[in-house]
């Protein structure tokens, strides 16, 4: 599709992942469209997975095919931020546990050395 041509841009949800960057996308109006990844999405290595919300551009001549222009932000992305924060909290907690364990091991070693002397 040339830049001069105006296509329909509609949001949709990825229903099925096919081979070679092809996806079956269900649009808001309940129509299913066979869509491929645009060059910009491919170059920037944007991953599109099952259930992602995407923006699809469709030609006025063939309404059964389209091009995925971008992946849209969803509320689920915020949950990933929270899980990353929880991972950092768990990581810090594990570091503290390991530090305490190492301190106890060193204390026991020192006690055993003093007993031997």
TrEMBL record:
Broad class of the protein's primary localization: plastid
Entry's localization field: Plastid, Chloroplast
Keyword Transmembrane helix set for record: no
Record key words, sorted: Chloroplast, Initiation factor, Plastid, Protein biosynthesis, RNA-binding, rRNA-binding
Domain of life of the organism encoding this protein: Eukaryota
GO molecular function: ribosome binding; rRNA binding; translation initiation factor activity
GO annotation, cellular component aspect: chloroplast; cytosol
Residues of the S1-like domain: 1-73
Protein purpose: One of the essential components for the initiation of protein synthesis. Stabilizes the binding of IF-2 and IF-3 on the 30S subunit to which N-formylmethionyl-tRNA(fMet) subsequently binds. Helps modulate mRNA selection, yielding the 30S pre-initiation complex (PIC). Upon addition of the 50S ribosomal subunit IF-1, IF-2 and IF-3 are released leaving the mature 70S translation initiation complex.
Protein name per Swiss-Prot or TrEMBL: Translation initiation factor IF-1, chloroplastic
């Amino acid at each position: 599709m040339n830049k001069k041509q105006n296509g329909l841009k509609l949001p949709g949800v990825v229903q099925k992942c096919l081979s070679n960057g092809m996806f079956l996308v269900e649009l808001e109006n309940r129509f299913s469209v066979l869509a491929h990844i645009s060059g910009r999405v491919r170059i920037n290595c944007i991953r599109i997975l099952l259930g992602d919300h995407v923006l699809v551009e469709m030609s006025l001549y063939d309404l059964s095919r389209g091009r995925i222009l971008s992946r849209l932000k969803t509320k689920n992305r915020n949950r990933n931020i929270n899980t990353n924060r929880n991972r950092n909290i768990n990581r810090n907690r594990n570091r503290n546990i390991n530090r305490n364990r190492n301190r106890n091991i060193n204390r026991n070693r020192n006690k055993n050395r003093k007993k031997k002397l």
